[in-house]
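Render this sequence as a predicted structure.
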Amino acid sequence: MSLQVRAASRVNARTLLVKVSPAPSTLTERRAILQVLQRHGEVEVFKKLHDPGHFISVLSHPEKAADIVARSPLQFDYVSQQHDGRGAANSPMSRPSHPQKKTFYVQIKETYIYQHKTHIRENPIHGRWPAPNDSLLLENSMTKAALSQAVPHGMAHAGLVDWATCGQLDGQETLTSKEDHIAARRRRRMNESKFGSLVEAYNARHASGRQREGGHGKGDVQGSDRAADSNVAPS
């Protein structure tokens, strides 16, 4: 079993489906639901689904997840403070009035069908940035430069900065140290550039184009000279 599969199985054991009735309609109400879950353990993920009354939650440990499932359903009262509209909420003139009380019922159960990897891929900001064809641009990309400044220097610096070939969600088998060394060497060779800057690459490209054009012209001249020599009768 690969490392990715084992990690996914551990996440599934901590993933919970939370159904709240009535559905919370404000951010403060959703925050209150989260705080109720946090009383039973550290919550790493709390995400609202398309249905406003359903949430996906991931706890820090499978034991905590099993414990809160055993305590389901949960019930708690939420009191919202409605401030007087004549002043700002933080103004000394404003005073809370007409407190509204809601009773929420929270049903929690385990779920093994939620595909974390699929939902991560569907995120519009997920994935690597489009890599240019020029290896010089790939090696000196803005992404790599930004990560180089942000990531602390150490043993893992090179791997963390290498955004273009990270492939965390590809689901491949974990490489051995030898295979990883070979793959890294191949990437370095692929990213090697003969030019030190984009200006040098631009000048070299145009110089090679002029040489090809000059070669064709010279060949035409030499061909015409040979044709003229062949038409001259020997003396």
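Summary. The radius of gyration is 33 Å. The longest strand covers residues 96-110.
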